[in-house]
Structures are given as structure tokens and as C-alpha cells.
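Sanity check

After download, print the first record. It should look like this:
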Amino acid sequence: MLIDINAYVGNWPFQQMKYNTCELLLDRMNKFGVDISVISNLNGIFYKNTQSANEELHQEIRSARKFSDRFIPFAVINPIYAGWRDDLETSVKKMGMRGVRIYPKYHDFGITDPACIELVKRVRDYGLPVAFEYRMVDSRQRSWMDIDYVVGTTKREWNLKDILPIVKAVPDAKYMILNYANAAVLTPDEMNLVKTADLIFDTSGRTITNMSEFLKLYGTNKFAFGTHSPILDYLTGQLRIESLQPSEADERVKEQLRSGNAKKMLGLS
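Expected C-alpha cells:
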């Protein structure tokens, strides 16, 4: 079984997207043997009211039975937007969203902002994961309207050290760290936090150039297949698993990476 924990539908204002509807993504999944995809609506990153994007996603999934069987929706929530608590409750209880994605850089709040901490705690109390993206697109290819990633010392792409403060603040939540794009040297305490937290990375990010070394460093329970589709290509994340030699990962470990770790994180039987 193959579960993609990092995919999207919707539009990106600075790049033409393909395979960015449920219908087209499902065709892509069928072509490459992906059984289930965790999806969010890209539009929610740019709408002032993210709930409109969650409603769009909910309606699209409900438009065909084949979508509800193959897609696991995550809501996009902005904790500094008025009414977000009601939006979260509606997304989970009425729309059946199975997790939340948060975008501090795009929605302009600190990762340990009290509102962000409150949101993560509320998602934890629902028993659901919260997902953070290292980055959405390569910041070297940019529009003047895009967020300012790289000017100065504080405006830059994330690395793992930038995400760990929220894990430390709410250590009993469930975390998905997606598009692992920038390396960081961790202290022993930071490494211990990663290893003890209920946390997984997906396999889409550019930094994962040697999957076997990452498995040794973090553990085989810390990774799951992800594509970052439709922004990144559909095969790299899968090839990082399938290219592992038997001496690096046996079939049991590969099944963990293909679906086992994702099932555990998502609460699937």
C-alpha cells in the first residue's frame, strides 16, 4: 500500500499547476500506484478567509464517491484570523477534516505565537496531526508579490530548528514536517526532541539525498512517503524509498515508509 501524506489541489498564483484537481490527481495516483493521498487546498494559503478554501475542498471531495474513498482532507487554518476556532470545529466535526495545515510565513505569525500554540493544542485534543511545510516553492524563483524568504537574517526559508520550538511548546501533539528542504545541525537536546515526539517527515524534500542515512539518524518510524504534488514531481519521493538496498532497508521497513508510519499518524486501521 502507498499513502502520500503531502499533496494538494487548487492553484498557485506564481506558477502554472497541473494535476491540481481531485479528478486529475486521482488519475496521477492510479498511474503510479498510490492508494490514498492526504490533500489540502492551495488556495487557503492565499485567501484571507482560509475557510473558503476548506469549503471548496470539502465540496470537491463530496462530488464523487471515488474521491472520498481515496483522499484524506486537511484543513488550512490561520490562527490569527477572526473566527478560526469556529472554522476548526466546523472543519473537523462537519466536514470530516483529518488534520490541519498551518502556514506561519504566509499568514505572518510566529510559530510560538500564543494563537498558534492554542491552535496546535486544539488540534491535539481532537487527536489529529498538524502539518508544517519547510517551504512551498524554491525561493530563488519568485514574484515581487511572493513572501520575502531570503532578505535579512530572520526572513529566510525554514530549517528544522525553526519548527522545533512549537514541538517543544506542545510536546504531546502529532506533527507532520513536510518538504524537508534545508538541513540543520541539531543539538543533542533537539535531536532527542525529534526522536521522542510523535512526528514524521515526508520524503519529498530536496535535502533527503541519502534516505538510508536519514533512517539511521532519525529512525525508520520517522518518515513516510510524500510527493508535494502538484508543485514537485510525482516520483522522487517514491524513488527514495524504492531505491533503498536490502542492506539499508528490508521489506518491513519499506512498508513502514510506504504506508505503515502514515497509517499510525493518521489513525488508519
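If your output differs, re-run the checksum step. Summary of this record's structure: The beta strands are 3-9, 36-41, 71-73, 75-76, 100-102, 129-133, 174-178, 198-202, 223-224.
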